[in-house]
């Protein structure tokens, strides 16, 4: 019995031969049904295309990620990771914008209080009370100092409204791998700024109206019953109901209209309707992420601003003659730090949730892939 042909493959560890290893079929044409001799790619590998089409590595359901976000329905971790990436790579249009508008607003009470401190001697007792001999001029100076602080807070909130609109555009651009600077983000809001302001006013007036109605009804209940038991029962049952209603309205009405208004060709009321439709059947998930974001951002903001408040209290104790100025200064700095770092994170997470809900419900990821050049238009 004759030996068969040598095995076509060398044993493991053998050196690479100079000549190709011959097989028993060398020299013979392949059968007619045999496919052309084309190497097969390894499982999960896609060769680089020579024409526009899906990019390599995005195979069998793997997510495209041309920018800060994977273009697929997002998990909580992916949302937070994307939010931090967006802030990190667009610092001027996020943290910088919030710092700028809040800082400019906080200059007003600092300047007013400094002028009053060095002209009329406005002061603040270390016990937290006003000076013992308060004259009319002292009262007016105090009113001017703290009135200017209240006005500056309102101005800062007004500026933050525009910052949230800018962050919506920053998030949309970051999803496709583009970075927006401060000027580009501000220019992107052109044509929608008055609508954005009107949306903020409408939503806040609606919330104040709800609280006013509840307060008026509560006063009527107290006056009519004039007894402890029914009044206690009223607040025991209605306060949790009011809190639940506010949470529901926050998600369904207040949470997503800003990114919808900024990123879609719609008006004010249509933006509220878009927020309503996007959160339909997604309430608890959206509420959980939003609530967790508010709690985490609030805790971080208080942690950051706490040293400033401590330094301010120490300064007031050491220099009571400048107590009013130090108090206003530390409050302004604390608000500046909180707004500059907390507001961009909350606004970015809300914008990311808007993108996520559109990818889940409207195949928005396909539109983003076309814009990023991942798939042909």
UniProtKB/TrEMBL annotation:
Keywords: Membrane, Transmembrane, Transmembrane helix. The lineage of its organism: Bacteria, Bacillati, Actinomycetota, Actinomycetes, Propionibacteriales. Residues 1-41 are annotated as: Disordered. It comes from the Bacteria. This is Glycerophosphoryl diester phosphodiesterase membrane domain-containing protein. It comes from Nocardioides ginsengisoli. Residues 7-18, 27-41 have a biased composition (Pro residues). The chain crosses the membrane at residues 95-120, 140-170, 196-225, 231-251, 283-303, 310-329.
């Amino acid at each position: 019995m004759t030996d068969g042909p040598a095995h076509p493959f060398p044993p493991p560890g053998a050196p690479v031969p100079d000549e190709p290893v011959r097989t028993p079929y060398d020299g013979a044409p392949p059968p007619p049904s045999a496919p052309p001799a084309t190497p097969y790619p390894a499982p999960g590998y896609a060769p680089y295309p020579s024409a526009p089409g899906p990019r390599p590595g995005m195979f069998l359901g793997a997510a495209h990620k041309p920018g800060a976000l994977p273009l697929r329905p997002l998990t909580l971790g992916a949302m937070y990771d994307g939010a931090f990436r967006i802030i990190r790579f667009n610092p001027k249009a996020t943290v910088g914008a919030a710092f700028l508008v809040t800082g400019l607003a906080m200059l007003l009470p600092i300047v007013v209080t400094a002028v009053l401190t060095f002209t009329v001697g406005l002061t603040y007792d270390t016990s937290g009370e006003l000076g013992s001999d308060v004259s009319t001029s002292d009262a007016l100076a105090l009113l001017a100092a703290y009135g200017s602080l209240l006005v500056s807070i309102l101005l800062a909130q007004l500026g933050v409204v525009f910052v949230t609109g800018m962050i919506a555009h920053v998030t949309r651009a970051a999803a496709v791998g583009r970075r927006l600077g401060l000027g580009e983000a501000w220019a992107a809001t052109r044509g929608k700024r008055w609508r954005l302001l009107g949306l903020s006013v409408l939503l806040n007036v609606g919330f104040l109206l709800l609280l006013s109605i509840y307060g008026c009804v509560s006063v009527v209940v107290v006056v009519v019953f004039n007894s402890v038991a029914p009044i206690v029962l009223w607040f025991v049952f209605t306060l949790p109901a009011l809190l639940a209603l506010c949470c529901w309205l926050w998600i369904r009405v207040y949470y997503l209209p800003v990114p919808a208004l900024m990123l879609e060709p719609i008006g004010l009321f249509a933006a509220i309707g878009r927020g309503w439709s996007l959160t339909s059947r997604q309430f608890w998930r959206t509420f959980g992420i939003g609530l967790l974001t508010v709690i985490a951002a609030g805790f971080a903001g208080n942690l950051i601003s706490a040293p400033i408040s401590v330094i301010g209290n120490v300064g007031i104790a050491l220099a009571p003659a400048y107590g009013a100025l130090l108090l206003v200064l530390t409050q302004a700095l604390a608000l500046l730090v909180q707004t500059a770092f907390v507001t961009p994170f909350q606004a970015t997470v809300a914008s990311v949730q808007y993108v996520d809900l559109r990818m889940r419900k409207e195949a928005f990821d396909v539109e983003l892939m076309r814009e990023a050049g991942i798939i042909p238009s």
